[in-house]
Amino acid sequence: MIIGVPKEIKTEENRVALTPAGALELTKRGHEVYVQSTAGAGSGFEDQDYEAAGARILPTIKDVYDKAEMIMKVKEPIEAEYDLIREDQLLFTYFHFASYEPLTRAMIKSKAVCLAYETVELPDRSLPLLVPMSEVAGRMAIQEGAKYLEKPSGGRGVLLGGVPGVRPGQVLVLGGGVVGTQAAKMAAGLGAQVIIMDISLSRLRYLADVMPANVQTVYSNEYNIRHYIKEADLIVGAVLIPGAKAPNLITRDMLKEMHAGTVLVDVAVDQGGCIETCRPTTHSDPTFVIDDVLHYCVANMPGAVPYTSTIALTNATLPYAIQLAGKGWQQACRESEPLKKGLNVVRGKVVYKGVAEAFDLPLDPVDDCLK
Which top class of enzyme applies to this chain (predicted)? Predict the structure, then answer.
């Protein structure tokens, strides 16, 4: 198969979909890999690194799209890429369709095959291609939150770990999945007092067993959220419903119950956000203030640490890319239930329930496109 790796053109996205090591694994299996010039530079990988791994370098993004049967990306295509995508071309990337209708309709119009990293799902309901970036984002949520709690950055002026004689910072984490678990671990490691909320009692039991003593588990409901936001210095939104829009757990009226200078980090922003007042921001302009509460809502947080993120992402996606390249997407999805669940939009039809429900679109049976 001919595989194309374009340079990410979303604002301040420094990751790349494939490392030279990943390119080598594909080329040694007989596949052709074409990488856009400087696509890996932001992650610390130069064109000559890819060429040494057997890949070929193309000068423009159009060249890559024109050549490739399968496109591997990190972020969803943006408007400038829509017309480059061909009918029947396989796109393997993060899409987060349910949070952005124009993208969904553009991919329907393109009649491409859109296989979303974030909905590839294992039998235990874990999301193997979302996990590595969720781990990065969860840890970064505390790193960034701690920075913006500093007074010069607009926060309350709280040191999360405190010092002897001074109470440590209070961190509230909404969601006990991968993002929330990593955020709680990082916050606890800094010495903060942490509350982590979830609606799954079995998950809360697990977290209560594995977390250090400065992490408490609390069942998530509106009453409890309203209670704990009053004392929180840093609140992390870490709620995910695979392939669907995140629910608003913190509403606009709740901001008035928080301390001035409280920091909100909404990791779910690329799925619509679990904080009503969130809107996507960028690394160059990451924050805004509403009702004296500072919001950090960068939609591609792992893009700030691209060397770590790119390697972690390739480690996860490469086994699936090898299946898709070796068998073709139809056979690979017939033989792999996790890959089949990654199909969202196929040849002009929506085949993933969460996307169809988000925009009241017809839902077609996914098995029909595999015949």
Answer: oxidoreductase
